[in-house]
Structures are given as C-alpha cells and as structure tokens.
Amino acid sequence: MRKFTRDDYVSMPWKNGGGNTLQLAIAPEDADLSNFDWRVSTAEIGGAGPFSLFAGFDRSLAVLEGSGLMLELDSLHATILTPDNKPLAFRGEQQLHAALLDGPIRDLNVITRRACWTHTLEKLQFSGSLQCDMQADLIFIFHARGGDVHCRTLAGREAAIGGGESVLIDASDGEHIDLAATAAATLYIVRLMQKRNADNN
C-alpha cells in the first residue's frame, strides 16, 4: 500500500499545452507522457477547448467539482458530464472538445496503454464502513471530499486518507479492502488490470 498526499503530486502542462494537470500517480514511476503505461491525474478546466490526443490509450473522465461539461466526441454527438453522472469512457484517439456549462470545473482523468493495461473508474459515496472488492491487479482510491477514510487490507496494511489524498494497493494485499469513513465521503475507485500476454518491455 502506498499513500499519496498533495506533496507527492506533480503539476505539469497538458500534452496539448492548453492547460495544467496535477499528476497523482504514474507507472512506471519515472515515466513521462511519452512512455507511461497508466496515469491518474486531475485538471482544472477554465474555458472551452480540445482534450489532448493519446493514440493507443483508453481514457476515463469524471467531473469532481463545478457545474459540469458539455462534451463533443468526434464531432458526432454531445453529452453532458456533471459530478452526478457516471464517468465517461472513451478512446485516446477520439477527438473530445469540452465547453463549460456554468463556470470552471475540476476533473479526474485515468488513462491506460491499451496494449498492456485496462481500467475502470467508479464513484463511491458512503458513510460508516464497507468492503471494497479488489477485482484488479492494482486499485487506486482517490478521496474527493467528505470525512477521512481509513483503508485496511487483508494483509494488515492500513492508511487514513483525507480530501485530495489517495492510496495505491496491490492485489497481493488481499481480495478486498475495508473502508471506514468518519463522516459521509466521496471516493473515486480506479481498478487497473494488466494484460497477461502484453509485452511490457
């Protein structure tokens, strides 16, 4: 289990130079935008514009804060994404153009190299305690808002995360993670699955 705080995150420009992103985690750890296998980040969007293209990657996008986005995918259809919607999954080759519904937003981005990784992204709102199934090689938990959350694995590893913090847990820690919130909390759960026949060099 590895805990990430705001001091661990890395601020950098978008691939297309249209804004800035806060990188929460990346693999390999020393990778950059030219050679990574998976990446989780947040970004502030303050105006309309295109998303960066990532050929050969799969992406998921969730709105964390703000009214939301009007998203046009490949100039074919538009969809609205707000904090209340399920995350949007799309391919990195697709042209995605965003317009603000009502003021700036903050989003969460997950991206995986299609040749060697797949992923899912889900929003989890809860209070009290629950078990979160692993169902992946790695699970990344981002705390968006609410009460502090204590995470404990079957292997006995544990960490407490507050707003803006996150943890990365390996499948070797067990089949599920026990979560306990001091008050109602909103988490985003990223499950990362490695393709066994992939050539990861």
UniProtKB/TrEMBL annotation:
Transmembrane segments: none annotated. It comes from Noviherbaspirillum album. CDD domains: cupin_HutD_N (cd20293). SUPFAM superfamilies: RmlC-like cupins. InterPro entries: RmlC-like_jellyroll, RmlC_Cupin_sf, Uncharacterised_HutD/Ves. The lineage of its organism: Bacteria, Pseudomonadati, Pseudomonadota, Betaproteobacteria, Burkholderiales. This is HutD family protein.
